[in-house]
Task: inverse folding
């Protein structure tokens, strides 16, 4: 993942070029870049903008609009805790508060050792198994504090 | 070979279906038994998940909810012969929750292997497309119009009229766009179809394309559904390989969203598909005239499109024979949150809210009294039990200052603080506002501040009046439903649960 910026720039340009036939490609390219690097590096904006023949401002507008797109790397594990109503009805707010406090994080922050990022998410479609979360893209439901702790502790560091 | 069915649906996986499936395979291997383990979608009886079903000559028997360490005991009890076990739930189709339903759109979901086209055909799939081909475009549109089908995303616009408009619109290129950006809390019916019966969506889109003369379709799926995306991708590949979709006449591309709730609004979704910021467009022009890339576009909710194949197969009149008032056919309702029997209920329109929550849903999971239910997602109203006689259908909810949205019902017990829920509605609107119009962008921020002042006891009468006024401005001044409907949860909380806003000791001047 830790490539030299120059090598990264070449790769980003190649990703953008690969989507030149795609109609309305900007979001698709940004997602693909994030897929590869885990975030959208700063140097990606001019490279993609040039490849797609749009302004940097326009591309930055897209990048900054979508909650999913990261401009900095996440932790090695990402916990997305649902904050929406169905999960609220089953105690998600207290669960989230405790999890954040336990790891000393605010929403969206990463632990100092880079192991864990906790992010809010508004509905995972697991609303009959609330409270729910996505842990590294794997769905988890009927969460309580003990299950959440086991999940995080059970993950490789 | 005995067939055992285990869901691979994300909701089932979230509560351990993978571990249970592995345990079943391991135990069968240890006992030297050859089993045909079929991974299905979910039946939508989520309180029973992970639910394992075994095929017997008399029907499919269910066992659930199961934990992996219960699997050896399940084999020892003789579940492969349908013998009883502590987790037996009997014949799945006879479980009252399922027996009371009328499954049309969800007829196959949880029954079949979602990626088996043979299963799909054997259970009635592709009949609708083949009938549409024999009817031709104009008669296909009329069949949909006759069904009375209205948009299942929540707006309830007649699908037949939408298709007719797009079919009549001049243009070389036309598009079919499926809105699978299912962001409402308390809903997952789109996800269940993508994971449990993806060919139904593909068939529905192929019929829509034939009806209006489109050659390209897009499915816009939210990124929060990684598994649905993966399964639909595989289903599309199979559909192409089997010439269900033939490139040149019609093809479908999946586009993945990026965590913006507002992209569920149709014009914002179109902007996002074009690779732009998901900012709402003013209407007119209607998407049916000038939609994706400026071309005539049919944009339908996923459930709307997945309901098309049975309508074509069995005729619009049969579908229209079900329902209530101007709400025809069936609606997949999702019972969620603090509910004892949470899951998907497909019934004809008209069942009362109380029957859904108290009878089918069995009341709260916590066993405490129900205090409020939010119907129709984060922009839907909170209803108290006093309104449980409301029939579940578009107009009856509108008459009571509510909406049915995408069919989600979130149940709350008597511990809920409704002022906090109202504040959350404003907070959510602020978080998700696309920023294009002021009532939504600024109004939601002001709404949070005003509710905070009310809760702090600062000039409550004045601030309550201000909150009402702000809601009015948002409702009439916002460009789309995000700002326009956020007042529903806020005002319904004020109307039905006003006592929750007057708990603070009163102070006279703002701090």
Result:
């Amino acid at each position: 993942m830790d490539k030299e910026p120059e090598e990264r720039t070449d790769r980003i340009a190649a990703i953008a070029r690969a989507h030149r036939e795609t109609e309305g490609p900007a979001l698709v390219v940004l997602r693909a870049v994030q897929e590869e690097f885990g975030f959208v590096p700063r140097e990606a904006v001019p490279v993609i903008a040039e490849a797609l023949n749009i302004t940097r401002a326009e591309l930055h507008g897209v990048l900054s609009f979508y909650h999913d797109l990261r401009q900095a790397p996440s932790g090695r594990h990402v916990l997305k805790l649902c904050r929406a109503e169905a999960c609220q009805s089953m105690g998600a707010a207290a669960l989230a508060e405790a999890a954040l406090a336990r790891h000393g994080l605010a929403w969206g922050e990463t632990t100092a050792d880079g192991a864990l990022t906790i992010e809010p998410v508004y509905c995972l479609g697991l609303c009959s198994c609330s409270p729910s979360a996505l842990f590294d893209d794997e769905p988890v439901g009927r969460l309580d504090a003990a299950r959440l702790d086991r999940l995080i502790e059970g993950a490789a560091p | 070979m005995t067939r055992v069915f285990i869901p691979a649906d994300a909701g089932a996986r979230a509560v351990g279906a993978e571990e249970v499936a592995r345990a079943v395979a391991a135990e069968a291997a240890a006992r030297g038994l050859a089993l045909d383990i079929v991974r299905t979608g979910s039946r939508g009886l989520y309180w029973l998940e992970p639910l394992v079903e075994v095929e017997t000559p008399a029907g499919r028997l269910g066992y659930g909810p199961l934990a992996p360490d219960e699997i050896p005991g399940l084999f020892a009890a003789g579940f492969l012969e349908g013998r009883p076990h502590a987790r037996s739930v009997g014949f799945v189709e006879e479980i009252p929750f399922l027996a009371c339903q009328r499954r049309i759109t969800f007829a196959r979901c949880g029954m079949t292997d979602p990626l088996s086209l043979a299963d799909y055909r054997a259970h009635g799939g592709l009949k609708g497309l083949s009938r549409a081909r024999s009817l031709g475009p104009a008669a296909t549109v009329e069949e949909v119009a006759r069904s009375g089908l209205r948009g299942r995303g929540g707006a309830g616009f007649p699908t037949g009229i939408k298709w007719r408009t797009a079919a009549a619109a001049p243009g070389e290129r036309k598009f079919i766009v499926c809105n699978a950006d299912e962001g409402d809390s308390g809903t997952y019916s789109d996800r269940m179809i993508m994971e449990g019966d993806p060919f139904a969506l593909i068939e529905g889109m192929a019929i829509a394309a034939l009806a209006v003369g489109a050659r390209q379709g897009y499915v816009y799926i939210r990124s929060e559904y990684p598994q649905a995306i993966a399964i639909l991708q595989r289903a599309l590949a199979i559909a192409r390989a089997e010439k269900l979709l033939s490139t040149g006449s019609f093809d479908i591309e999946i586009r993945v969203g990026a965590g913006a709730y507002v992209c569920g609004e149709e014009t914002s979704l179109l902007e996002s598909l074009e690779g732009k910021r998901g900012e709402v467009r003013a209407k007119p022009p209607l998407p049916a005239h000038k939609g994706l890339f400026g071309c005539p576009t049919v944009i339908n909710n996923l459930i709307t499109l997945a309901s098309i194949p049975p309508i074509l197969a069995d005729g619009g009149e049969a579908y229209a024979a079900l329902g209530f008032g101007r709400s025809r056919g069936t609606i997949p309702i999702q019972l969620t949150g603090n509910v004892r029997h949470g899951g998907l209920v497909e019934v004809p329109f008209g069942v009362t809210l109380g029957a859904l929550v108290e009878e089918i849903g069995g009341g709260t999971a916590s066993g405490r009294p129900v205090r409020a239910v939010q119907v129709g997602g984060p922009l839907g109203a909170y209803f108290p039990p006093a309104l449980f006689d409301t029939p579940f259908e578009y107009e009856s909810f509108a008459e009571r200052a509510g909406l049915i949205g995408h069919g989600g019902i979130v149940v709350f017990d008597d511990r809920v603080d409704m002022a906090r829920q109202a504040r959350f509605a404003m907070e959510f609107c602020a978080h998700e506002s696309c920023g294009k119009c002021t009532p939504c962008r600024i109004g939601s921020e002001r709404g949070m501040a005003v509710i905070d002042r009310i809760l702090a006891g600062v000039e409550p009468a004045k601030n309550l009046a201000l909150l009402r006024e702000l809601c009015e401005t948002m409702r009439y001044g916002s460009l789309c439903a995000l700002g326009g409907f956020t007042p529903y949860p806020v005002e319904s909380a004020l109307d039905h649960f006003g006592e929750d806003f007057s708990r603070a000791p009163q102070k006279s001047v703002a701090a």
Remarks:
- The mean pLDDT of chain B is 96.
